[in-house]
C-alpha cells in the first residue's frame, strides 16, 4: 500500500544529510481525489508566471525551453484580420515578394505600440525574443523601416478602406465627427531645415533646404517650412521643435484618421484640409465638432459646403460683437444631466445659433482659481508704490508674461499697479460657462451641448495615444518615418478602441488578462513541442465577445531537425 504526500527536502549542514519534512498527507494513492489535486495545482499556478507554471508541470521526458505571451497579439491579430487590414495592406504593396512580410512587420509594429511601446529597434528584438506572433518568428529593424516606408505610400487608400471596414463591423454612424489637434515635441534643440511645401504641409517634389543665399520671394518663403519646427506647443514646450497631429473621431471614440503637419502650422485652416480629404469618402450628412481654435469665419463657411454643418466652441474673451451679444442675453437655463445647464440665445443679424452652457461645479473651481490668482497678484504688487518708475515698469513687464495675473492688473495714469476690479467682475460673469455656435437648424440645444461635450473623446484619444501607446518619445528624425510612426499609433489606437467598445472594458484590464495566455516551447528526443497554456474563463469571454477563435492548444509538434 502506498501513500501520496507533499514533502519538502532541506539540507542539514551540521549532520550533512538531507532531511524530509511532510507538509501535507493526501492519503492512500488508490483513494486520492485527483480532481482536488488538479484544482490545488491550478490555484498554486496563479502565483507563478505562465512560463514558471509550464516549466513546473512539464513531463520528465521534455525540457522546458521558453515561454512567450500570445494572448495580446492573438486578440489584436484576430481583429486585424476580421477588419481585413491584412488583405488591404497586401493588396496595396506593389512588390508581390514583399507583401506578406511587409504586412506581418506592420502588424508587429502596431501590436508593439498596443502592448509594449518601444523604439523600432527594440520592437524588432521584442518580436524575435519576447512575444509570439503568428507568421513572424523574427524580424530585424531594417525590415521594420522598409515596412514603414511602404505604409506611408498607401496612407490615404488604407485609411479609407479601414474606415469602411470598421463602419461595417461596428455599424458605425458618422453623424457627428470630432476633430482636434495636438503637438508632440522632440528632445532636440535643432529644428529641421525649411523645405518647399504645398498648402497641406507636404514636401514638394525635389525640394531642397534653403541655404540662405540670395533674396527669397515672400510668398515662396511662406511655404518654406521644416517638419520639426518651433511653434506654439500644446505640451508647454515652446523651447523644443515639434510636429502637429490632427485626429478625427466618431461620437463613440473610434479614431477614423490622423494627419501630420509641420510644427509651425496654426490650427485655423487645418480643418479645411480634413474636410476636403474626408469628402472623398462620401460620408453623407456630417456635423463637424471642434474647439475654439477652428471657429474663424472662413472655416465656418468651408464646413457648410455641400450641406455640412458644425458645432464650434467660441472664445469667451473676445471682441466679437456676436459673442458679446450672446453673453449679454437674458434667459432661463434648462438643467440637463451631468450637472449641466444650458440656454439658447438669439443674436440679431446672426445666421448661427448660440447655446450658453453653465457647469455649477466648474464655476466654483473657476472662482477658487481666480481668488488664488488675485491673492498672488496682490502680494506681488504690494509695496510697489514706493518703487521707482523704472522698477515698477520692470515689475509690470514681468507680470505681462503671466496671463493669469496680467488679466487682473490695472495700471493707473500715474503708473501705479492696482487690482482691476472691473476685470474681476467681468470674469465672475464667465465662471463655469462656455459658448457654442452651431449652423444646424435641426439639432436641439441639448443635442448641441451634448455633441460638443463628446469632444472629450478626442482628448481621451490624445491621452491614451501619449500614455498607453507612447506617441512620445519619437525615435525618428526623418519626416517620412515620423509620419509613418503617427500612422502606426493611429492603427494601434483604432484596434484598442474597437476592443474596448466591444468588450465594454478598459484596454489595461483586457490586456492584463490576455497577456497571461502564453505559448511554451519544449524540446526532447522526439523533437520540438509548442503548447498554449489552458485558456481561462476571462480570456475565453474576451475572445468570444470579439468574435475571435482561441488559439489551438498544440501549436507545433515537429520532429528533431
Give the integer mean of the pLDDT values.
87
Assign a percent range to the helix content. Answer: 40-55%
Biggest sheet statistics: 9 strands, mixed
Round the Cα radius of gyration to an integer and report it: 31 Å
Strand order, sheet with most strands: 8-7-4-9-10-16-13-12-11
The structural class is alpha+beta
Inertia-based shape: globular
| Low-pLDDT runs | 212-222
How many individual β-strands?
Answer: 19
Q: Beta fraction of the residues?
A: 15-25%
Roughly how many Å apart are the termini?
44 Å
Reconstruct the topology from this structure.
Layout: E1 3-12, E2 17-28, H1 34-45, H2 50-56, E3 63-69, H3 71-82, H4 85-92, H5 99-115, H6 120-130, H7 141-153, H8 155-170, E4 176-185, E5 195-196, H9 218-222, E6 224-225, E7 242-250, E8 255-262, H10 270-279, E9 287-290, H11 297-303, E10 309-314, H12 321-328, E11 334-336, E12 340-345, E13 353-358, H13 360-381, H14 389-400, H15 403-406, E14 409-411, E15 417-419, H16 421-428, E16 433-438, H17 445-453, H18 456-467, H19 479-503, H20 507-514, E17 518-524, E18 527-532, H21 537-546, E19 554-558
Parallel strand pairs: 4-9, 9-10
Antiparallel strand pairs: 1-2, 3-17, 4-7, 5-6, 7-8, 10-16, 11-12, 12-13, 13-16, 14-15, 17-18, 18-19
Distinctive features:
single chain, 561 residues, alpha+beta, 9-stranded mixed sheet, 19 strands, globular
Task: Write up what this structure looks like.
The protein is α+β, with helices and mostly antiparallel strands and 561 residues long. The protein is built from 21 helices and 19 strands. The strands form five sheets. It has a nine-stranded mixed sheet, sandwiched between helices. Strands 3-17-18-19 form a four-stranded antiparallel sheet. Strands 1-2 form a two-stranded antiparallel ribbon. Strand 1 and strand 2 (17-28) form a beta hairpin. Helix 5 crosses helix 7 (141-153). The longest helix has 25 residues, at 479-503. The two termini are 44 Å apart. Residues 212-222 have low confidence and may be disordered.
